[in-house]
Design a protein that fits this description.
Blueprint: E1 3-8, E2 11-16, H1 24-44, H2 50-75, E3 79-84, E4 89-94, E5 101-105, E6 111-115, E7 124-129, E8 132-135, H3 142-162
Antiparallel strand pairs: 1-2, 2-3, 3-4, 4-5, 6-7, 7-8
Helix pairs in contact: 1-2
Length: 163
């Protein structure tokens, strides 16, 4: 699951992050295998002037793959953190391309909503309170948003019952 819900004392911490299927070791393997595959046709023209015509395109293809994977990692380094207690809910979204977005509300007045359709994503998960509605876990799969909704709904009910 690309989220973690931890409890310490009377506070809860939720951290969400997107899937990252390619680990650094996998990245090195993909680049090495691609370089090998791109080098095979070059062996046939080794020592020939044709090599210099094909080589820039092979290097460009390898660089484009490298760049695309690194860019994807950078774009997927977004994450969300939520701190919950009986007195405050504080949500932070850290996006590598933009400013940190923060939202605070009283958990007693927070409404958690899961819309099966009609949102920008399937199983659209939102929190409403403090005069705003914010999206939660847009980068999660629909099934993960449903599971997160169930866990957060139970947690919010518990927090509201303590007040």
């Amino acid at each position: 699951m690309p989220y973690e819900l931890r409890h310490s004392g009377n506070r809860w911490q939720l951290r969400l992050w997107p899937h990252n299927a390619l680990a650094p070791r996998g990245f090195a393997t993909v680049i090495a295998l691609s370089a090998t595959v791109l080098a095979l046709p070059l062996l046939a023209v080794l020592g020939n002037a044709v090599l210099w015509g094909i080589l820039p395109f092979a290097v460009l293809a390898l660089w484009a793959l490298w760049y695309a994977i690194r860019r994807n990692w950078r774009d997927r380094s977004v994450f969300e953190e939520m701190a919950l207690s009986r007195h405050e809910l504080h949500l932070r979204r850290i996006d590598p391309r933009g400013p940190v977005q923060e939202w605070r509300a009283d958990p007693h007045w927070v409404a958690l909503r899961l819309s099966a359709s009609g949102g920008p994503v399937e199983q659209y998960l939102t929190l409403t309170g403090g005069g705003r509605e914010v999206e939660l876990g847009a980068f999660l799969t629909p099934g993960e948003r449903v599971k997160l909704h169930d866990e957060l709904a139970d947690l919010l009910i518990r927090l509201k019952s303590y007040a």
